[in-house]
């Protein structure tokens, strides 16, 4: 978690221009949740603290190169009496790799309702990620995988790799408990940026889970295309959060997944949508 907090602590190199980096162990491309979280940090640092973010909409344009820094430029689109709008472009090698639009709002009152939280197992009763990975990949891989994850993630539903081995486990719904692996400061922007990072870890997996596919099965490849989030209420990323995910559609080499994030006491705090590229070969 300390390494992730360091990644989100962007360097300001000019007014409305920030620079971020990627973990040293990334070899192929930048993780989408990282660039989304860093872009939201850049946007949030240009907005008064009394205007929390309530939504973001983003597009993944090109794969990010983990070996070079990412420059984030912020466009101050509007500063209104109630709402503030920012547009962020992430640039590498002189080209945009990612764009994000985010809206911030002062606290206001109004009608309230929410979808109910479904019944769910307590996270403490579920096996850890390591416990689920050991039978699939062995202890060494499980230890390495978990050591790189800044979140404690516990699945109440099958993993994609389990469904790939047993098609009877395929399901269009995924229930995941997660929380930051460590205590965090009280900065509300940090908590939403961490959830932005975490929201990309398992969401597109839900599409694969419905078809008995898995990343690394030598026939499935894909990438995030766009990502949208709505932040409904304040929350802490270092408390347990239930990430309920499902997939309403797949077709045309694309899959759509949506998510709802609930606090342990049943408060709906975040809604998420993502479309991803999914290509399957006969290999």
Give a quick rundown of the structure.
The protein is of the alpha+beta class and 283 residues long. It has 2 domains: 1-106, Hotdog Thioesterase (Thiol Ester Dehydrase, Chain A), CATH 3.10.129; 127-283, Hotdog Thioesterase (Thiol Ester Dehydrase, Chain A, Roll), CATH 3.10.129.10.
Structural write-up:
The chain is of the alpha+beta class and 283 residues long. The chain has 2 domains: 1-106, Hotdog Thioesterase (Thiol Ester Dehydrase, Chain A, Roll); 127-283, Thiol Ester Dehydrase, Chain A (Roll). Helix content is 23%, strand content 37%. It has helices at 2-8, 32-44, 129-137, 139-148, 160-165, 188-202, 205-209, and strands at 11-14, 17-20, 53-60, 70-79, 83-92, 95-105, 151-155, 173-180, 220-231, 241-251, 254-263, 268-280. The chain has a 12-stranded antiparallel sheet with strand order 1-2-4-5-6-3-9-12-11-10-8-7. The two termini are 37 Å apart. The model has no long low-confidence stretch (mean pLDDT 95).
N/C terminus separation: 37 Å
The number of domains is 2
Give me the side-by-side strand order of the main sheet: 1-2-4-5-6-3-9-12-11-10-8-7
Which geometry do the CA atoms define? globular
The low-confidence runs, each spanning 5 or more residues with pLDDT under 50, are: none
CATH-assigned homologous superfamily of the largest domain: Hotdog Thioesterase
Helix content: 10-25%
Characterize the biggest β-sheet: 12 strands, antiparallel
Order of helices and strands: HEEHEEEEHHEHEHHEEEE
Which fold name is given in CATH as the topology of the largest domain?
Thiol Ester Dehydrase, Chain A
Q: What fraction of the residues are assigned to beta strands by DSSP? A: 35-45%
The top level CATH class name of the largest domain? Alpha Beta
Query: What is the count of DSSP helices, taking H or I runs of 4+ residues?
Result: 7
Structural class: alpha+beta
**What's the total count of β strands?**
12
> Any guess at the CATH architecture of the largest domain?
Roll
What's the overall average pLDDT, rounded? 95
Instruction: Report the radius of gyration as a whole number of Å.
Output: 19 Å
